[in-house]
Every structure is written in structure tokens, then in C-alpha cells.
Amino acid sequence: MDEPDAAELSLSVAIIDKLVANHREFLGFLERRLGNRAEAEDILQEAFVKGVERAETVRDGETVVAWFYRLLRNAVVDHHRRRGAAGRAMDAFARELESAVEPSVEVRQTVCACVRSLSDTLKPEYADALRRIDVDGMSVQAYAAEIGIEPNNAAVRVHRARLALRKRVTTSCGTCADHGCLDCSCDKSCGPALSAS
């Protein structure tokens, strides 16, 4: 790649100086379109980075401001698109939550009894991690402090415990575990036939 000559460097510096000199106007332009100063500052910062990276593509120093406003308009459109997509995803999630049906007490007790008996077949440290974090609701950080390990190690332990429990549920309950059957009849296989992993 060829090194830029003195004229190209001078033009790039002039372009950057012109962009910096118009910072306040650019920020106002974005804030009016976004209605949020923090978002406007974030987008302007990203646009400045792009502008500086692409400064050499602008050949006429007089058009740099118009060129940068075009870059800002595109950034605003992209921002609104992303926000719209995120909003639609949140709306869909809210509808899903509204239509979700809480399982009956009987179903929860049956499932909990099955899972509890299966968790007792895991390594003691896995069963303890699941009990303290998932059942008792203790945070991973508090659990780590309680047993004297690093929070990252506790997070790995509970992750591995969940995987081991999932394998036990799949082995014990078969397709019920994969397909969400509510007529679990795995009591016969939850006992000592499963050894600790």
C-alpha cells in the first residue's frame, strides 16, 4: 500500500478539523432526530470514527460537512431500524408471557419431586449448587462466597450441574424430557439405578 503524500495528509487533517469544528451542530442534528442526548452522543462518536477512517475518500474539502450529514442520516435510520426490531422482539416476548399458563400445583409437585430425586444422584457438589442457586434462589456470587470459591468457578459448577441433571432427566424420563410431557411416570427409574456422575 502506498504511503500518503503531504497533500493527502494535509487534506485529511483539514477534513478532520472541519468535522471537529461542527461537533455541536452535528450533535444538535442527532438529538433532534433521536430525542435523547446520550444516544445522540453515542451515534456521533461512532460516526466520527467512521468519518476519520474514511476521510481520505472525500476529495473536496467544501463538501465534507454535507458528506458527514449524509453519514449521520444513515446512522439515524440504522438506529431506528435496530430499535424497531428490538421493540418488536420485546412485544412478542410480552405477548408470550401474557399467554403463558402457570402449571398447576400438582404438575409442579410431580415435576419437582422427579427432578429432586434425580438431582440426588448427581455429584454432591453439583446437587448442592443446584439446590442453593436454582431452588433457594441464592446468587452465584453469594454461593461462591459461601463455599469459598471464585464466582467464575461457581458459575461453571452450576452450568455443569444443570447439564448433568438434564442428562439424568433425559435418561430417566426419555422423550418426556424432550417433548414436555406432563404425564411423567419415571418414579421407577429415579432411584438407585442411576449412579453419581
At the first level of CATH, the class of the largest domain is: Mainly Alpha
Q: Which class best fits the helix and strand makeup?
A: mainly alpha
> What can be said about the biggest beta sheet?
none
The string of secondary-structure elements, in order, is: HHHHHHHHH
Give the termini distance in whole angstroms. Answer: 58 Å
Q: Would you identify the regions where 5 or more consecutive residues have pLDDT less than 50?
A: 187-197
Proportion of helical residues: over 70%
Q: What is the number of independent domains?
A: 2
User: Overall mean pLDDT score?
Assistant: 77
Q: Which oligomeric form is depicted?
A: single chain
Query: What is the annotated CATH architecture of the largest domain?
Result: Orthogonal Bundle
- Percent strand equals under 5%
Output the radius of gyration.
29 Å
Number of strands: 0
Number of helices, counting only DSSP H or I runs of 4 residues or more? 9
Features:
mainly alpha, 9 helices, single chain, Rna Polymerase Sigma Factor, Chain: A, 197 residues, disordered C terminus, elongated, 2 domains, 73% helix, Arc Repressor Mutant, subunit A
Describe this structure in words.
α2 crosses α3, α3 packs across α4 (64-99) and α7 (140-147) crosses α8 (151-173). 73% of the residues lie in helices and 0% in strands. The protein has 197 residues and is an all-alpha fold. The two termini are 58 Å apart. The protein has helices at 6-21, 23-34, 37-53, 64-99, 105-119, 124-135, 140-147, 151-173, 175-179.
